[in-house]
Specification:
Hypothetical Protein Ychn, Chain: A; two-stranded antiparallel sheet; 9 helices; 222 residues; 14% strand; alpha/beta; 40% helix
Length: 222
Amino acid sequence: MSLASSPTPRRGFLGSIAAGAAVLASGRWSTAHADVLSTLESPPVGDEWVAKIKGQHKQVFDCVMPNDGWGPTFGLNYLDSTEQAKKLTDKDLTAVVVMRHMAMPLTLNDATWAKYKIGEFLNVKDAKTNAPATRNIFRDNVPLRPGLTYEQMMTNRGLVMVACNLALTVLSGMAAGKVGVPAEQAKKDWEAGLLKGVYLAPSGVYAVNRAQEAGCSYCYGG
């Protein structure tokens, strides 16, 4: 059973962190996952992305689920509609997209999706095969933006994309057992598999807070 198909994926995820325990009520966690949680004590702190928040108009989009890839699209919609309404350009505003909880894997490359069976893990199917996705089907299939990639959004439009290290640590550890690798190796693979331009924050909620401290208004991104 995939995590996404569970009736309470968010509650299970957050509950495991709050308790610092290796066992969830659903029984999906094993003793091995206790080692994963122990690595959460000192996550790497990366605030370089905060300096990229500029302009008079700023908004952070809080994405917690795959949501068919709509989270980053909301960031682009904000840029485009605000620029059109106020006769502005990209230099006048910033969109920050925080990919946390179950949205975090959308920031990983195709190789990581294939190795760790992330499509199966998230219950995400590739429309071309009607089977669990073995690649990141979202990064080059942005809703309403045919042909656009996440990398182009970040490079050409200045969209700031931030991934949650807390989610990366927990989810990579859970996926590790399914492919027979140690949790520590899975975490390293996921870190190395982040798409170019994606920043890693200690946690998604930390990133949302830092963005708001930098002047961003808040928008739920699904």
